[in-house]
Amino acid sequence: xxxxxxxxxxxxxxxxxxxxxxxxxxxxxxxxxxxxxxxxxxxxxxxxxxxxxxxxxxxxxxxxxxxxxxxxxxxxxxxxxxxxxxxxxxxxxxxxxxxxxxxxxxxxxxxxxxxxxxxxxxxxxxxxxxxxxxxxxxxxxxxxxxxxxxxxxxxxxxxxxxxxxxxxxxxxxxxxxxxxxxxxxxxxxxxxxxxxxxxxxxxxxxxxxxxxxxxxxxxxxxxxxxxxxxxxxxxxxxxxxxxxxxxxxxxxxxxxxxxxxxxxxxxxxxxxxxxxxxxxxxxxxxxxxxxxxxxxxxxxxxxxxxxxxxxxxxxxxxxxxxxxxxxxxxxxxxxxxxxxxxxxxxxxxxxxxxxxxxxxxxxxxxxxxxxxxxxxxxxxxxxxxxxxxxxxxxxxxxxxxxxxxxxxxxxxxxxxxxxxxxxxxxxxxxxxxxxxxxxxxxxxxxxxxxxxxxxxxxxxxxxxxxxxxxxxxxxxxxxxxxxxxxxxxxxxxxxxxxxxxxxxxxxxxxxxxxxxxxxxxxxxxxxxxxxxxxxxxxxxxxxxxxxxxxxxxxxxxxxxxxxxxxxxxxxxxxxxxxxxxxxxxxxxxxxxxxxxxxxxxxxxxxx
Length: 607
Description:
The protein is an alpha+beta fold. The longest helix has 17 residues, at about 405-425. The radius of gyration is 30 Å and the shape is elongated. The relative contact order is 0.09.
């Protein structure tokens, strides 16, 4: 009887593991994929039984019994068939379909059928789920054309960048941010992006922007963990995709469907469906599985980095074992007198997500400290390094506004804008090598409004030096008078000359809003960013009535009519934009240690 029982157990274990039967070579990257024995969708019938693997606690996958209920045709897009199954066993019947379970491999007759990927309805009383057929998941590999690159620090101890964080694979109230006017009974099993080390105020401010990018943010739970996980990844293991790692973490966890020496398939549905991606791929340890009628979820620790996810597609995500992902290192230093706090982290290098991730992490660093207050002002200095180009220098001040916008949000938006313009250029893919930001915290609202301005003359001649006198009103302070000398160019035409007295943002907006600046290559985009004015000065700009041409980041003021006729073929195109007047000279005050806002227009006559 003991021999019979042992033989039966061995047969059961054999039925839960995929047997290698064939290989497929991707002709684009020559990466050999060892396909397991699979059961085609056309051979699956209602009533068939098998097993599924997932981790409920720890790192070892556990088996669940599976019963096929039927095939749902075209429910996951055109030709997107789904296998409907019921899970059996004490744990799945207690927890239901769990967030973080997506990707759990399903075996029928000992062959791989697909991955658990969908839940059915709301408050389901039975663990009924949808399975993505494995044939669709193997199609993802054919889309990956990148060769394997520098190996990652294999499966050894976790590096500082891969320091584990405890996360909760649980959806939150931000689910409601993406509402629809239809009811969908078949939904992907949640694999939410868990934010660890973030304040509630940060998620409230940026949750809608993350949601519009396809990310459902939830708050992390528990403390950091740097445990090394020596156990190898296998079908049914938990695995995480990382957007931010270090002193702040953003990661999503799902389950491995298939793994070989070079590849890994997981989730059975997209995380964001960005197509080609480059996200760190880590092992994960399930601390606990929490049952809930509304949302059962796994509490997870991310551990060792083992490669990178390279494809995020309709049928799942594809990971490359041993690939070193390209991340953007960020250092944020906060100075409050002699006290210094420094944050080190890395951000995903992605045109759509990097600007948003930078905004959220910078705001979180500024907001989530004891020194933060409503009247804090920040003096910022920093540099954004792009390989092969001059650094983008950043120098500005940020103070709270009358509308209630905190200085931390303004600083974050300024950095996000620079990232967005660099990634938004249509010609060059930027290789961002790093960001360093230094903030001086001032316990005062250092803002001032431009209240009045005048000139010492009403008429002048070309070459004359005139003085513009401005009055600024600091927040809850006494008026201050500033004098700005500016020389009228000798080439200035006779007639009216307009003088714009303004803050730096107003002056930048005039040039930034020109159509030619919207489709610049990376080099002129960086050049324009480095020409932008700081917002702690008052500027005086002279505008002549002669036309001005803008070609990329170059300005050609006061062009004669003969030159304009020669260049007429370029007028109005992306290469050249003609403006009705020319900015012929500019001057400013010294830094005032106030964030200055306001603008006024003066006019003098050139004789």
